[in-house]
Amino acid sequence: MTYKTLVLLASSKQQRKYFNALVRNVTLPLELLWYKRIILPSIFCSPNSEVLLEQVKLLEKRKRTAKKGLPGFFWGWFRFSSYLQANWTYRVAYRFLKQRNVALGVWNGKKFRQAIWIVAAKDLKRDVVFFETGPLPGYSAVDPVGVDYYSAAPRELDFYHKYTCSEQLPVLTMPLTDKPSSLPSSYIFIPFQVIEDSNIYLHSPWIKDMRDLYEKITLLSNDFPDKFFVIKPHPACPEKYDDLFALSEQTEGRIRFVFDLPTTCLVEHSETVLTVNSTVGMEALMARKKVIVLGQAIYGVEGIVKLAHSLHDLENVFNSLEQWHLDENLINQYLCYLKNDYAVRGDAMKSPDNEHWIDVTAKLSAMLSGHRMSAIGLEDD
Q1: CA-CA distance, 183 to 164, in Å (whole number)?
Q2: Three-state secondary structure call for residue 302
Q3: Tens digit of each residue's pLDDT (9 = 90 or more) over 100-140
Q4: How is the chain split into domains, by residue range?
Q5: Over the stretch 363-381, which tens digit does the pLDDT of each residue have?
Q6: Which spans are transmembrane here (predicted)?
Q7: pTM higher than 0.70
Q8: What's 157-337's CATH class?
């Protein structure tokens, strides 16, 4: 389907700033919609209550991780009021989209408000375009399906075997450093993730949070006493892990937290990177490191990384670490696809330049004219 206009739903000041710049720099029919704009709701639609309740549950799950200790009656009221908000938001979105021949553009699309608008858009059979930074450092995504694990980037290994790359990709761009004396001679690097990271509450089926991850690391440390584990807390995470820091001090250095070394340095000198689905996993691939993925990630392609869906799987991966030989050519193919076909140049939120707008224009032009998948180097349905 072709559309006259792409409506860009901005749900934060940062999103509004980027979408405003997008409207100014891209010569396509774009319209900015600030989420606080007054729009009357439709009274003639019937939202699926189960779908809305699922979004309410996800919102509650996210908020509970950061608001511990609140009484049960608070969460009962939270669910009730959030459902009313979801119903109202759906009816507003339905009326707005139904009256126009438009596609919907959202940033990320996983947060509560955007997710409800997406539900309404799909009920009306309208296309949605997703914007996000990444998946490569210094790049951004314009995707017709979703972002992160929801993205349209192929997860089939055979695709990357067949893909033809016309360039040699460099390793992760970072200054090479001497190995700090505080690090073990060989270690597994584990980056902690932000407590409210949507990649944890949406895309982590068996690791519920970083404390749960630490527990699994402890079990691995007991089973593999010759391995050392280095953990770096996320610098932007407000959660306090003093209890875990104290526990690690009892492991005689086999599990240790590092605060003052750059993540790139910790990746560079590691034997393996173990992550739920952090962006550090992608950086580790760029540095040609072995990557073990515990959750669901855009780079979760078995054969490029090792996937562990349970503690048993994880133990099996550790038992075969010495026999695991990276296929660097395959990693090159994967990174080349992301760089040349999937991503757009420039960090959308930090440094969108003329190259960024040229790439975004090309992808949006294709998507708005009905060529949604070919915009990211794939065959259209």
Answers
A1: 39
A2: strand
A3: 999 999 999 999 999 999 999 999 999 999 999 999 999 99
A4: 6-153+342-376, 157-337
A5: 999 999 999 999 999 999 7
A6: none
A7: yes
A8: alpha beta
